[in-house]
Amino acid sequence: MIKPDGVGRRLCGDIIRRYESKGLRLAGLKMRILTREDAERLYAAHADRPFFAGLIDFMISGPTIQMVWEGPNAVKMARSINGATDCQEAAPGTIRGDYGVNTRKNLVHASDSVETARREMALYFTDSELWNYSMPDGHWLAEL
User: Does domain 4-133 correspond to CATH entry 3.30.70.141?
Assistant: First the structure.
């Protein structure tokens, strides 16, 4: 997901390009402002943490872009592309390392496991909204 700060700072194209450049395939895409309930469901694991209320307020403050990426080790790859949650610790060349401001305004959210990804995908997408398509013949991604 591209968070409100990523959308507001007009970094969506660059963020999406980074996932595509690493060979991931975009299977679903939506733009919406999360409801408080949606944001609370997404971050339910953090409900008892002191930062929860501020995180929820931030996540409903503007448009977000929900995405589903597919490919070998997609969860691990997306988290690597994103960089460390704390932008000050994120390596240069990662989304957060290059553009992040702080731990809350860190531009992107990615699932931490395949199981979590399935749960989070179901929050935003129905099966009919996810696309399974082939890459053109001869394209280097066809070998993945």
Answer: yes
Amino acid at 123: L
User: DSSP labels for 84-136?
Assistant: -SSTTTSPTTSHHHHH--SSSS-SB---SSHHHHHHHHHHH--GGGS---PPP
Across the chain, how many H-helices and E-strands are there? Answer: 7, 2
Q: What is the rounded distance in angstroms from the CA atom of residue 121 to the CA atom of residue 68? A: 7
Catalytic residue selected from 83, 109, 110, 124: 109
Each residue's pLDDT tens digit, 37-90: 999 999 999 999 999 999 999 999 999 999 999 999 999 999 999 999 999 999
Neighbours of 144 (CB within 10 A): 12
Instruction: Read off the tokens for 121.
Output: 């995908």
Is 139 among the residues known to form the active site?
no
Per domain, the residue ranges of the chain are: 4-133
Residue 114 has a CB neighbour count (10 Å cut-off) of 12
Q: What is the pTM of this model?
A: 0.90
Q: Tokens 């969860």 identify what position?
A: 75
Which residue type sits at 93? Answer: G
